């Protein structure tokens, strides 16, 4: 049984209905409390539990003069890495690629500059040594040229630190995975996303290249992405020269990136490491299938054996970019909750600014959350909104025995 809560649009338009299972009302209340004022922006939250959609809600503002509605989608940054990784696992399940095969077996040019031994498993766990995006291209707009970027990555030597541990490929990961997929299938990456993710799940909102007719649905991001409001160029240059932060600046702070993320042209390019545009509904549906043993609505999306492989931690070493031990699995990280107790068997991916999604394989819960308010009032890089929503959700499913 569910409770339907209508938005401000006429009752005759059923697509405006919010969906709230009574068991998840406390989670809905916590979400709505986050978007009471225009300066808080807007967002959407969707949850699946044991294969059933139990929450599909939204609130706030998509722009200064536009309320967030059912069809609003958002640029979700690194959240898209989890979707791109899932494409790889769908292909691996059918034997189209092997995790322990060399990337160069599928993409011969990748083997240049001594990279011939790097495997698909290395790539999926950020151990390819190609984390550097800063300085990869001559100008910020060059990052919009997919072919030029993948050619540059293929010809770049790997960072030798990859042999000691992972180095988060904050921006480059998406291009590397996309080109691997394109070489394996002989199809453009965005078409493969449609065929392997959007089509099987019955929902279109998985975009790295957003169709023109859907771009008006994209929420406007704010404030600027600059760390602590500081000048991007000055800050990134300083961080790139300081030992402990050099890797992060190299991986995530290319020149002009703060301007590029606000350029509408990013929605017409393929940059899967950060420019994915999604609805919370789409993200939660994909992870809902994963959380439910690979099955949703009676259709198998992934085998249990595949999910076991993709969720197994591959490295516990310190990440030389992040400076922590993220425990990377094959294309995902463990979800982060604002609690001492963390899910023991869960995978997902969060994005800079706050959006993210995950699947808890033990409880059968999935959450998808997107927002246009980048971070908190202190920093645009991220905050605890999804981490707190996750705590509430986990408590509710623990009590539903």
Automatic annotation (TrEMBL):
Q: What is this protein called?
A: Esterase
What's one Pfam family here? Beta-lactamase
- Occurrences of domain Beta-lactamase-related (ranges): 38-389
* SUPFAM superfamilies (alphabetical): beta-lactamase/transpeptidase-like
Organism per entry: Rhodococcus oxybenzonivorans
Q: Which PANTHER family match?
A: BETA-LACTAMASE-RELATED (PTHR43319), BETA-LACTAMASE-RELATED DOMAIN-CONTAINING PROTEIN (PTHR43319:SF3)
- Which InterPro entries does its entry note? Beta-lactam-related, Beta-lactam/transpept-like, Beta-lactamase/esterase
Q: Which domain of life is it from?
A: Bacteria
